[in-house]
């Protein structure tokens, strides 16, 4: 290990206490999405912290994006520190939003409790532990190399959990993730400390509506129950679609192994009486039932084929079932993404893993999408990967945690990658 590398990793290790407290501070902001709570105070906390380290701070609201209101503004923070001479720009991007905590916790999900070498809380793994590690990595690097070349950027962005449209997509449309402003991007998503994540599966979110005719509940024969029609859809999916998806396999290095095939999740079903009432339900035959589907697909599949598989089943039911009618509405669609492992940022992170862990990195693809999709497609910047601490399987679950040693080691890897990229070991 060279002297410079040794000094950087020692500095990160010496900042272990600061890393723990920063993670806890971030988790204590209940940035729950939906609806988008505490975005602005969390962004301002990050901005104030980095401003004290010499970063220039910019706040950008994703105005007009889904969910943006005066009560729940989509507030993003971008911090930048310039080096002493020209050079590349390395950007660490983390999302600050977290999913709702849900039930089943044995600890307060926003108390950020430290126990048994772990920090517990919603967002510790996905991905405030990763954000804290990237901030500490940047601070350690600049402390050892105050005359560094180029520039470093750190952003805290919103709405990744709901597609990223008020965060990275909004910023990418305005040039924040394109050359010449940025050259290399690392997203500290929780893909495990010795993995380089090159991309993600594709996704199609859609709403399927079955239609019926309203009537009195005591005389359902005078109406047409939309929920029963939806039952026929589910039955056909179980018999035909789900088995067909299970048979599709990919050459993409997706983790965990179960995600190496196509999948579809039924996110929600709503029909008939809504749940925003008090008292007894009305005696009505439901004339509408809506199902939200979350279809994840492989790089070997075509988007039109993915949609047609669902349409074909609906059309078959329409032929065989009396009075069956339906509508399909697209909610979101993202193509699979996989960048080359020989891009400069992937090479730099891989070298950092070799240095810290003494073994070869594993190259993986994420089962779910993350904000790389906007950087590569809107920003047209291919030099972007995900790397961060945290066990992927813990994301969104009760008693979510991040292992403190993993954060420290990942921060060491990120600090070394920063050094390699800014000082020219790996260039575009």
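^ structure tokens above, recovered residues below v
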């Amino acid at each position: 290990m060279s002297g410079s590398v040794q000094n950087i990793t020692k500095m990160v290790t010496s900042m272990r206490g600061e890393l723990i407290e920063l993670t806890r501070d971030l988790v204590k902001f209940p940035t729950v999405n939906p609806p988008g709570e505490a975005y602005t105070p969390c962004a301002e906390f990050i901005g104030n912290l980095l401003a004290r380290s010499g970063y220039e701070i910019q706040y950008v609201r994703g105005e007009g994006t889904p969910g943006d209101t005066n009560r729940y503004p989509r507030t993003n923070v971008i911090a930048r520190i310039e080096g002493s001479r020209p050079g590349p720009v390395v950007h660490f991007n983390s999302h600050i939003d977290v999913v709702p905590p849900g039930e089943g916790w044995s600890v307060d999900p926003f108390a950020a409790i430290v126990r048994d070498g772990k920090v517990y809380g919603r967002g510790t793994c996905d991905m405030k532990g990763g954000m804290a590690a990237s901030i500490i990595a940047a601070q350690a690097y600049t402390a050892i190399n105050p005359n560094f070349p180029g520039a470093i950027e750190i952003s805290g962005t919103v709405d990744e959990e709901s597609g990223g449209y008020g965060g990275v997509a909004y910023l990418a449309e305005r040039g924040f993730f394109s050359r010449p402003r940025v050259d290399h991007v690392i997203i500290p998503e929780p893909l495990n400390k010795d993995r380089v994540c090159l991309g993600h599966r594709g996704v199609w979110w859609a709403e399927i509506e079955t239609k019926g005719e309203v009537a009195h509940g005591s005389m359902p024969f005078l109406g047409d129950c939309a929920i029963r029609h939806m039952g026929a859809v589910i039955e056909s999916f179980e018999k035909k679609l789900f088995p067909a998806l299970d048979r599709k396999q990919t050459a993409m290095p997706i983790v965990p192994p179960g995600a190496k095939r196509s999948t579809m999740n039924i996110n929600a079903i709503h029909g008939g009486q809504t749940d925003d009432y008090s008292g007894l339900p009305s005696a009505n035959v439901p004339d509408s039932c809506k199902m939200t589907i979350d279809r994840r697909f492989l790089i070997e599949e075509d988007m039109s084929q993915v949609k047609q598989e669902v349409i074909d089943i609906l059309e078959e039911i329409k032929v065989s079932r009396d009075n069956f009618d339906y509508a399909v509405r697209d909610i979101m669609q993202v193509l699979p993404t996989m960048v080359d492992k020989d891009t400069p940022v992937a090479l730099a992170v891989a070298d950092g893993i070799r240095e810290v862990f003494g073994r070869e990195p594993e190259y993986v693809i994420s089962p779910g999408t993350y904000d790389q999709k906007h950087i590569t497609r809107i920003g047209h910047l291919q030099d972007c990967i995900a790397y961060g601490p945290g066990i992927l399987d813990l994301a969104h679950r009760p008693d979510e945690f991040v292992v403190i040693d993993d954060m420290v080691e990942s921060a060491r890897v990120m600090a070394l990658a920063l050094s390699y990229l800014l000082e020219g070991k790996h260039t575009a």
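The longest strand covers residues 85-95.
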